[in-house]
Amino acid sequence: METTIQHPGSILIRTTGAFIVDDVLYEDSSKIPETSDIALPFQTHDISHIAVDIGGSLAKIVYFTSNESTEKIDDFIQFIHKLIKFYKKKVHIMATGGGSVKFYDKLKSDLGVDVTKEDEMECLIVGLDFFITEIPNEVFMYTEQNPMQFVNDRKEIYPYLLVNIGSGVSMIKVTGPSTFTRVGGSSLGGGTLWGLLSLLTDASSYDEMLDNAAQGDNTNVDMLVGDIYGTDYNKIGLKSTTIASSFGKVFNNKFGNSSEERKSHFNPQDISRSLLYAISNNIGQIAYLQAKIHNLKHIYFGGSYIRGHPQTMHTLSYAINFWSQGEKTAYFLRHEGYLGAVGAFLKRQPTGWGRRASSSSDKTQEES
Amino acid sequence: METTIQHPGSILIRTTGAFIVDDVLYEDSSKIPETSDIALPFQTHDISHIAVDIGGSLAKIVYFTSNESTEKIDDFIQFIHKLIKFYKKKVHIMATGGGSVKFYDKLKSDLGVDVTKEDEMECLIVGLDFFITEIPNEVFMYTEQNPMQFVNDRKEIYPYLLVNIGSGVSMIKVTGPSTFTRVGGSSLGGGTLWGLLSLLTDASSYDEMLDNAAQGDNTNVDMLVGDIYGTDYNKIGLKSTTIASSFGKVFNNKFGNSSEERKSHFNPQDISRSLLYAISNNIGQIAYLQAKIHNLKHIYFGGSYIRGHPQTMHTLSYAINFWSQGEKTAYFLRHEGYLGAVGAFLKRQPTGWGRRASSSSDKTQEES
């Protein structure tokens, strides 16, 4: 281990044969398994680095342990301290995400260990490429009939669009293992959903917001084409059930003069569902438009927004399918929130994944 | 007048020489004049029809009067009744917008007059074409230095993209006076802004919401790139002042456990500005992407969302300019909310505007 620490980058992470450790075998395809640890069966060397991805709202951590389980924890820094203690302070931190730039000095001095910053977009792509090509039963398509249809042994990987939904949204065109461009994004992302719902409902966690959404009926809040027209608007192909205006039923004098009075007419479940639909539909539409402009057939959705929530995946899939008339496909990942952290983790090695993207000097910037 | 009523379509509306009646001459280009009546100086025949555009949230009305002023009114139906009384019940109503379909029977029976339904998209285009080609000092570009730079005597009108922002958003590609296709839209429109702000603030009207927005600072609510990175993210060209996540600063346990407690940490002005930015930016981005896909340089923004509000026009203009790197131009209109109603009004005549789009049998549907 000493050697490892003193010569960063000299450990080979053996990704061959990697697989997801499922607690149960899932014969029932309608049941979505929980995200689980990834096993690296051929990894014999110790790995004494930790990868952290510090975003706008969440921080993610990836580390290697020799079949030892570690309790889930809430506090990120405490957890790193604990890990460092476990490694006897001989760890190296690979840090990515905006927070790794902002808190670089603090991380380094507070933790007293070496910290290497890695570019956020590069790490996302390294992580995603790893999941696509090395981990079976990781990438899947969503339909209501089959919410987790795994896509293994893909032959054509590139080009693709990665839509990473964290607090905000980044859309990255990837044309090869080391070639990518951030083509766009949106400020309407997870942070918008969480922020607005924390002002509109008493939900205390994102999972509670998603539970609310699962029970809600958005048509009490949204104005549908049918609410305006009384029927379909056939001439332009809009069904009466299409959402014409998200929250379009809310602004009405009959609901009172204060925000509290007005809010009493709507329930938190319906509000949550409407907003989840609005944000997800919007991301789906922009993703489709970007994929069309850049001629990309495959769209991967990553980031901590989705959390395996069926309605979210349904809405994103539906949007891609609706707008592209079936020409483009939406893919999801079981480790969707860990692309950046896993990418940073993998970058600390002499060959393989880490090297592939770190040699990406030819990528261009076309922030359009 | 009897003849007119018994032979619908036999009145020629003389649009030649039409102009906007401004209350003041505006030498000061930084002052935005109020929307005003349009004079038809060569109109000698009486016009005894009324055009109504009934949308999801608002209804608009257009009628002709021989230099008689009429008080502004709040109640739409009352107003039509009054007008009908004024015309001695001898009027014909040209109705457009979704509400004209939904309320057709009711309009006809309650008002006891003839009602002709006209297609919403067709009327929008007829109205816009009229404003672009016939009304001087109607179409303008917005910059902070010159908030109303009029665009007169345009030589190339077609093709263009019309982005009509009402409760929801419709985007229409127009390639000639009678050729158009609705290429897309968004459910995040005026109804979303009004609906969410009526639950988040005590503002009682849309104008009050816009006044709030004008006084707000969105950076208390939005998470900027600088809040995450502590600096610019130069590698992908994102400035520290770019909004990474709208409402991204709001979801935080430190703000309390109930929506009311949390809301007390934010002021309604900042919330209003953040949401106005979020919705306007999003529409601007989708408009740009559609304009890029359909190769359209000119983008007109219509609908009752804008209301001459400088920040809204600034945000829409900025979005188009930012994404297109100056290649596409955003245009605004002083009668932005009346495109459909004016279009319906103009359709009741034997030649000219009304006929141009009513002959549009060759338009295709490519709801994509």
Explain this structure:
2 copies of one chain form a homodimer. The N and C termini of chain A lie far apart (46 Å). The first copy, chain A, has helices at 2-6, 76-86, 98-102, 104-111, 120-134, 190-200, 206-215, 225-229, 259-263, 268-293, 310-324, 339-347, 353-358, and strands at 19-20, 38-39, 49-54, 59-63, 92-96, 114-117, 139-141, 149-150, 160-165, 169-176, 179-186, 223-224, 243-245, 298-302, 329-333. Chain A is globular and about 65 Å long. Chain A is built from 13 helices and 15 strands. By secondary structure, chain A is an alpha/beta fold. Chain A has a 7-stranded mixed beta sheet, sandwiched between helices. Chain A has a 4-stranded mixed beta sheet with strand order 4-3-5-6, sandwiched between helices. Chains A and B meet through helix 3, strand 11, helix 6, helix 8 and strand 13 of A and helix 3, strand 11, helix 6, helix 8 and strand 13 of B. Chains A, B: Keywords: ATP-binding, Coenzyme A biosynthesis, Nucleotide-binding. Chains A, B: This is Fumble.
